[in-house]
Design goal:
Elements: E1 5-8, E2 14-17, E3 23-25, E4 44-46, E5 51-53, H1 56-62, H2 69-76, H3 81-90, H4 99-114, H5 118-125, E6 132-134, E7 145-146, E8 151-154, H6 157-168, E9 180-183
Parallel strand pairs: 3-6
Antiparallel strand pairs: 1-9, 2-8, 4-5, 7-8
Helix pairs in contact: 1-2, 1-3, 1-4, 2-3, 4-6
């Protein structure tokens, strides 16, 4: 049986630099847009099921509904992350009861699966030890919102998970600021 790493990340908002030293992304066409879950061209096969997924967003959204396999399949076949999210959010009230307790772990699982795509893994590793920050105008949990002085404020959970995944892949060390990797 494989030991899974349990990742603890800070759920506290903080300031992130948005200058040229950070890998900041917002849209798929951005320089670091591949880090977004909507980015196309980074499909993967889930080894647990043998199913092919077009995006990490589709896989992640399908995990809301383990009790609704037909809906999971509709989400998987949506064709892209935007459509997958739209289908899932139309039935968000039917999400699994523990969704808010497991969604961060499931996002990390989605990113690990995405990293089986060699091109994505190489792009992630190419950031070295730079901060990875999702620029968002409205979501300061998964991303960070713009502030004055070229900074962003938020939890930046997606960015934190990407930096931890990069460390797992051998491209850097987890930052000390509230992040630690521990074994279960």
């Amino acid at each position: 049986m494989r030991m899974e790493k349990m990742i603890e990340v800070s759920k506290n908002a903080r300031r992130w630099n948005a200058d040229g030293r950070a890998a900041v992304f917002c849209k798929a066409r951005d320089a670091f847009g591949c880090f977004g879950n909507m980015a196309g061209g980074y499909g993967f096969t889930d080894p647990a099921t043998g199913l092919r997924w077009s995006s990490s967003e589709a896989w992640y959204q399908a995990q809301r509904f383990p009790h609704l396999p037909e809906l999971q399949e509709e989400i998987r076949l949506a064709g892209n992350g935007f459509l997958a999210k739209k289908i899932a959010h139309a039935r968000v009230k039917e999400s699994r009861a523990d969704w808010l307790a497991v969604n961060v772990e499931l996002m990390l699982a989605a990113l690990r699966l995405k990293a089986t795509n060699r091109r994505f893994a190489e792009e992630l590793l190419s950031t070295g030890d730079r901060d990875i920050v999702e620029f968002s105008g409205r979501d300061d949990f998964w991303g960070a919102r713009p502030q004055q002085n070229n900074t962003l404020m938020g939890v930046n959970m997606l960015g934190q998970l990407l930096m931890l995944l990069r460390a797992e892949l051998g491209g850097g060390k987890p930052r000390k600021r509230g992040m630690a990797a521990t074994l279960l």
